[in-house]
Amino acid sequence: MATDNSIAIIGDGVGGLITFAILQHNRFPANSITIYGESPQPLATLATCVRAIGQERMRSESSGHLNPLDFPGLSFAESWQKKSPLPLLTSLCDAYNPSFDLLIAQSEKLAKQTGFFERKVSKKIQRITRRDDSHFVLYDESDEEIGVAGHVVGDGGVGLVDHAHPRYRRHGRGRRRHRHRHHADAGRHVGIPGTDERADRRR
Fold first, then answer.
1. DSSP-derived secondary structure letter, 175
2. pTM of the entire structure?
3. Cα separation of 172 and 4, whole Å?
4. Is residue 137 a contact partner of residue 128, using CB atoms and an 8 Å limit?
5. Rounded to an integer, what distance in angstroms lies between the CA atom of residue 43 and that of residue 185?
6. Which pLDDT tens digit goes with each residue over 105-126?
7. Which fold is adopted by the domain 7-42+118-201?
């Protein structure tokens, strides 16, 4: 049985891993969080795309990493790994581009440190509904109930917001919140990670 403070993270990719790490960093108990998804590794989809186009280095700078804190970034990690100040110095000039392999290594380390896979259910969520004022019910692709949570965090890509809040589109309002705002009313919110144009289109 879910408690009012239980959290379901819909999606086990990059966003799911970062969200899980940030929640733990902010002292949310790991045993109150469940991650749903079918990816073998958090960066599996990204890795497929990157390797398909032959990309070896990321376009992001040192700050484009997965850890919940800004520092240390990837340039620091590479400097430590290579015992060389060059990556850090390059980053100071805004000319550093981390290798994709470095990002993969960081994701594997972060997943292990946080116990990501121990909190994961290898199921894809098809829809959610409201059970009462305190809980959401999660259904898989066979439309079987597989979980209950007080809060849901997801990318909205499978229509989760519409199922949870069917009146949102019609009235232009609802209880959906982007991640950069702090809200914690149990059973009242679906979080959409991201504040960019893609996140806005998920409204």
1. S
2. 0.73
3. 27
4. yes
5. 31
6. 999 999 999 999 999 999 999 9
7. FAD/NAD(P)-binding domain (3.50.50)
